[in-house]
Specification:
The complex is a heterodimer of chains A (146) and B (131). By secondary structure, chain A is of the alpha+beta class. Chain A contains three helices and five strands; from the N terminus they run E-H-H-H-E-E-E-E. In chain A, a hairpin with a 2-residue loop joins strand 3 and strand 4. Chain B is an alpha+beta fold and 131 residues long.
């Protein structure tokens, strides 16, 4: 059966996430990242940040809200029973700081069949309240046996 | 600024996620997929046990790159790309290793991987840092 590719090029509604100090602290603690710029506003400001700054991979926290509706869209039609997260890329620009409102948009970039497996690639683009790009993500999901 | 050259090793990062790490990561990230936090559910879908979130392991790779080369400055990491392969398990040590691939001015490209014993859970990771 040929893989369904109707969703290629489709975008989903943006989501906005407000970054907060306690959430940054929680994330940094779980990863064991000890730099005080993630915990203490004084240390963050001294290092040149507006407020407590998120570790780069905190991008998953605010991007996920925009990505989830894309992944569950029946038009995409991924079979979750055989899906794995195959690869991930993030490209960072402006740091994300507490107080920022980050708006993320998800788009389906490609759907391809390779050796009987489906490769679904989504892109998320996140911008802050000033309109500056914070991060761009490429999410590759592999569905076995399409 | 970049005080590194091709072939330099990135300082190794060793972390052993405890039994409840995946619960804390689920809370921190918002990813409550039961394959990560419920061993019985994970086994019912054919997994050996509940498995680590791939993006947690990627978080450790990002940490190793930023700490090993960028002094922990969150601005240093500009790009990270990874492939998830073997499944990561709680209560087993993760070792993140890497080496500098290329230095161009203040831009450093690094190859990394994360493994639990022989099980390479993240392969072909590449980080770009600005130092």
């Amino acid at each position: 059966m040929a893989i369904k590719t109707d969703a290629v090029g489709k975008s989903w509604p943006s989501t906005t996430y407000q970054v907060g100090r306690e959430k940054i602290k929680e994330y940094a603690t779980v990863l064991g990242i000890e730099n005080p710029v993630h915990y203490d506003v004084g240390a963050a400001r001294e290092a040149g940040f507006r407020d407590v700054v998120a570790p780069p991979m905190f991008a998953v926290v605010y991007s996920m809200h925009a990505l989830a509706p894309a992944m569950f869209d029946p038009e995409v039609g991924m079979n979750f029973a055989t899906m794995v997260h195959g690869g991930q890329t993030f490209e960072w620009d402006e740091p994300a700081c507490s107080g920022d409102e980050i708006t993320t948009t998800a788009k389906c970039i490609s759907i391809e069949e390779k050796l009987g497996n489906g490769f679904y690639v989504f892109e998320t683009t996140s911008v802050n309240g000033a309109g500056a790009e914070v991060v761009r993500g490429a999410w590759t999901n592999i569905v076995r046996g399409v | 600024m970049a005080d590194f050259k091709a072939g330099d090793a990135v300082q190794e990062l060793r972390v052993t996620p405890d039994r409840y790490l995946t619960n804390r990561y689920a809370g921190a990230s918002g990813d409550f997929n039961p394959i990560h936090i419920d061993a019985d559910f994970a086994k019912s879908v054919g997994l050996p046990s509940n498995i680590l979130h791939g993006l947690y392991s990627m978080g450790l790779v990002a940490k190793a790159a930023a700490q090993g080369l960028g002094g922990g400055d969150p601005r240093s990491l500009k790009k990270l790309t990874v492939q998830f392969r073997g499944m990561g398990l709680p209560e087993q040590e993760i070792v993140v290793t890497g080496s500098v691939k290329e230095v161009e001015g203040d831009r450093v490209t690094v190859d990394l991987e994360a493994a639990q014993g022989d099980n390479r859970i993240i392969r072909n990771a590449q980080a770009e840092l600005e130092l």
